[in-house]
């Protein structure tokens, strides 16, 4: 299938009920409209594909591009890994102008694959197409097929050059690459009735490790977590699982739906953010496994575990409620966090005064409407000046967002907490909920905010009068400042 046909297929998503309610022409645009190249919010298609695939830890990731396309790959998203560090190295062919003019791209790519295979011997190599190599016509598919035959290991082409669309499209194209070349290529000898897949979980700051012990207590085995802390052979054997949980449908709904069509693996969309959502996710997984033939006693064991864990977490959260109840939160994120984090924060009495729906699906927005009392609190995008106004006018007590908007809160001298992929604390599961509330409490009650909001001594006459230094004459200081300003203004005018 050509890249253009693949893109059309990805955006004609049958698993989206809203999409199927459209006419044939509108349906081709899919659940999320591709953005204009150059205006791709959150990154390009290449970036999106790399985000989904790079956390597969034992795979060598080779970027076929000039050096600038690769940039700094080491820990750029904070995905936790318990295995090999090979995925963090991220190789590049480092194409030069001479390589492009002389048509040496494919030859250089083959040599790079050979060097990686001989030096690192990974179980597989993923090769990423980029804008430059796609425009000059390098056939990475042909090179990967030849390299697979020559070196005896899977060399997987990932055809997602940046110019074809947004990061979200790149997520989906990465899922298609897994379907076409990886999933179903390995048959494990330990298939069991309690095997599950987790899709769209990136293990940011190692937060999936806070959920995995809960699954293991119930006897569930995570056959493949895509992509968080994944291994190539586990992903290749993902077709043997009995149930799938979709954490971020915006990214990999096509992967979950096609795995259900090909191998009969039922899936549902859930969240591990918040007490109620974590409990619901465990119930849904148990229910699907029982429907697939697991022991019905799993349902009772799941309820017992949920009751035990919820009793512990509510006791821990009770200490924070008096300090946080009624505090107002401005949430400037998107995707699954636009509703899952809302639900989590409301459980401890926090009030949501606004949440961004950027990069959220229609289903995400429907969940937000159900969670929020006022639909006006949901906004698609808010200009930085409007975010600043909300904080400066004290209409919110804290902003939760990504690192790119932190300076808006800091300029307004208001608390801010990182909720996106760069964060350093895990927020998933029961323990993650406690950690999230603890970090919000620390941010809001940090004494630094009362200090930075105080007027400077030279701007506060009362402060100057209260000082014990008799030599300071407040009127003299004010007169001197006035003359300085006037003199400076005159000098600037002359310039």
UniProtKB/TrEMBL annotation:
InterPro entries in UniProt: Nase/OxRdtase_comp1 (IPR000510), Nase_comp1_CS (IPR000318), NifE (IPR005973), NifE-like (IPR049939)
Keywords, in A-Z order: Nitrogen fixation
Residues annotated as domain Nitrogenase/oxidoreductase component: 44-443
Molecular functions (GO terms): nitrogenase activity
SUPFAM superfamilies: Helical backbone' metal receptor
Involved pathway(s): Cofactor biosynthesis; Fe-Mo cofactor biosynthesis
Gene Ontology biological-process annotations: protein-containing complex assembly
Pfam families xrefs: Oxidored_nitro
Cross-referenced PROSITE patterns: NITROGENASE_1_1, NITROGENASE_1_2
Domain of life: Bacteria
Function: This protein may play a role in the biosynthesis of the prosthetic group of nitrogenase (FeMo cofactor).
Family, as annotated: Belongs to the NifD/NifK/NifE/NifN family.
Protein name listed in UniProt: Nitrogenase iron-molybdenum cofactor biosynthesis protein NifE
Organism: Hartmannibacter diazotrophicus
């Amino acid at each position: 299938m050509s890249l253009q046909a693949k893109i059309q297929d990805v955006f004609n998503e049958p698993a989206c009920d809203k999409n199927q309610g459209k006419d044939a022409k509108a349906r081709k645009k899919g659940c999320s409209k591709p953005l204009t190249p150059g205006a791709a919010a959150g990154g390009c298609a290449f970036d999106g594909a790399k985000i989904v695939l790079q956390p597969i830890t034992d795979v060598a990731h080779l970027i076929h591009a000039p050096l600038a396309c690769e940039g700094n790959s080491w820990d750029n998203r904070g995905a936790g890994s318990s295995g090999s560090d090979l995925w963090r190295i991220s190789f590049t062919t480092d194409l030069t102008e001479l390589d492009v003019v002389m048509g040496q791209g494919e030859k250089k790519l083959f040599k790079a694959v050979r060097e990686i295979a001989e030096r690192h011997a990974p179980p597989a190599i993923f090769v990423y197409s980029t804008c430059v190599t796609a425009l000059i016509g390098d056939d990475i598919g042909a090179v990967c097929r030849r390299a697979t035959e020559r070196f005896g290991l899977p060399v997987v082409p990932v055809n997602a050059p940046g110019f074809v669309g947004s990061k979200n499209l790149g997520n989906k194209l990465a899922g298609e690459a897994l379907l076409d070349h990886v999933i179903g290529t390995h048959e494990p000898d330990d298939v069991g009735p309690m095997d599950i897949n987790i899709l769209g979980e990136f293990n940011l700051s190692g937060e999936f490790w806070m959920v995995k012990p809960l699954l293991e207590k119930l006897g569930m085995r995570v056959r493949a977590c895509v992509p968080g802390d994944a291994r190539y052979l586990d992903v290749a054997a993902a077709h043997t699982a009995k149930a799938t949980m979709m954490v971020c449908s915006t990214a990999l709904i096509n992967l979950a739906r096609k795995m259900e069509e090909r191998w009969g693996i039922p899936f549902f969309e859930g969240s591990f953010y918040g007490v109620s959502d974590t409990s619901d996710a465990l119930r849904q997984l148990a229910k699907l496994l029982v429907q697939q033939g697991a022991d019905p006693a799993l349902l009772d064991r799941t309820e017992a575990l949920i009751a035990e864990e919820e009793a512990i977490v509510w006791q821990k959260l009770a200490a924070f409620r008096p300090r946080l109840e009624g505090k107002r939160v401005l949430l400037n994120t998107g995707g699954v966090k636009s509703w899952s984090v809302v639900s989590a924060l409301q459980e401890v009495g926090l009030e949501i005064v606004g949440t961004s729906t950027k990069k959220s699906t229609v289903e995400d927005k429907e969940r937000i409407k159900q969670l929020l009392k006022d639909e006006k609190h949901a906004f698609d995008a808010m200009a930085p000046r409007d975010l600043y106004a909300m904080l400066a006018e004290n209409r919110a007590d804290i902003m939760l967002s990504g690192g790119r908007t932190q300076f808006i809160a800091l300029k307004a001298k208001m608390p801010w907490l990182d909720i996106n992929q760069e964060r350093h604390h895990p927020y998933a599961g029961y323990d993650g909920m406690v950690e999230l509330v603890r970090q919000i409490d620390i941010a809001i009650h940090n004494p630094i905010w009362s200090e930075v909001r105080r007027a400077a001594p030279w701007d506060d006459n009362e402060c100057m009068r209260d000082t014990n230094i008799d030599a300071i004459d407040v009127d003299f200081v004010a007169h001197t400042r006035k003359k300085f300003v006037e003199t400076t203004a005159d000098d600037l005018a002359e310039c």
